[in-house]
Structure formats: C-alpha cells, structure tokens
Amino acid sequence: MILPITAFGDPVLRKVGKDIDESYPNLDTLIANMWDTMYNAHGVGLAAPQIGLPIRIFLVDTTPFADDDDLSPEEKKALDGFKKVFINCYIEEETGEEWTFNEGCLSIPDVREDVSRKDTVTINYLDENFKEYTETYDGLLARVIQHEYDHIEGVLFTDKLSSLKKRLLKGRLSNISKGKIRVDYKMRFPDAKKAR
C-alpha cells in the first residue's frame, strides 16, 4: 500500500527514532508498504519518519543510480541491485575525504542542494529478519545510507547547508510545509488541512 510521505515542517521529521524489536506490530506489512511508497515516488531510500513513524528503520535501493554514465564500472556494479532494510542502525565511524554531491529528499520535493559528507561509513544494523551486521560502505552507497540515517536521527539534508543557503530556501521550505507545491506522489503536509 502506498502511504503519504511526510512533508518538511512536520515535527516527526525532527524526532530521534526509537529502536524496535521483533514484536513490532505488522513489521512485514510496514516494510512492504515502505517499498511501495518509495518506488511510487521514484526514490532510492525512505526512512520511517518520512511516513510519520519515529522509529529506527529505513530502506535503500540504489539500482537507479547504476544507470548513471558518470560513474565508474566498479561504482555501477556496487549500486546495481543494492537493496536492503536497515533496522536499529547506528553509525560506528565516518572516515575519508569529504566530498560534495547534489542531494534531494522525498520530504522536501523540488529542492536539491550540494551537501558534503565523508566518503566512508561503518554501520551496525539489523536486517528485516533481525540478523545483525556491521558493514562498511563508501562512495554513493555510503551517501545514500548517511542521508537515510540522518532521517532516523531527526536531521534533514537542508540542516547541512550554510546559513545563507538556508535563508535563500526559507520561502520554498515554508511553501512545502503548507502544501503549496505540486508533486506526483501522495504527501501529508503539516500546515495544510489534508494529505493530497
């Protein structure tokens, strides 16, 4: 089932997510709904706060990036078919050079900005079967994971921008929270009367 994506301005996007356990109600259905919602909006990642739930779960499918002609064959191979669920994820270490990439977010439609992040990330997480992993990712994979991880920490990519950029975006962000934007997927706006 396709769920409405929570728009910028909703307090749930600022909450630090809570850990969940295997008894979380209807977890399989929630994960299936999150995949449906993400694919419907043409995203490569979606975190639970983006559908209104302050819990530590996000999912990623970077396959669409594998078609990018600017990437090396190695990068394309790493991104193609990378599809995972991350539960109770915690970053253990971020290392390497900072690099800039133009990021966007399903909760902040039509806003894209250059964001600097470290190249490599080591994370500890559980998969959908509650099997534990500690893994290290780099490049674009690391960036997508870091972006989604920020969501379960109550952080948005716009928080990483300079104060000047934030001021320049203030009106656009306000319009998003009021629902004064056209999107081709279901959204829930905090300052509008209903989801559309």
The helix tally amounts to 4
Strand order of the largest sheet: 2-3-4-5-6
Name the helicity range: 25-40%
Order of helices and strands: EHEEHEEEHHE
Strand content: 25-35%
Rounded Rg:
16 Å
Q: How is the main sheet built?
A: 5 strands, antiparallel
* Poorly predicted spans: none
Coarse structural class: alpha+beta
Mean pLDDT: 94
Number of strands: 7
**Termini separation:** 15 Å
What is the global morphology? globular
What does this protein look like?
This protein has a five-stranded antiparallel β-sheet, sandwiched between helices. It contains four helices and seven strands. The protein is 26% helix and 31% strand. The model has no long low-confidence stretch (mean pLDDT 94).
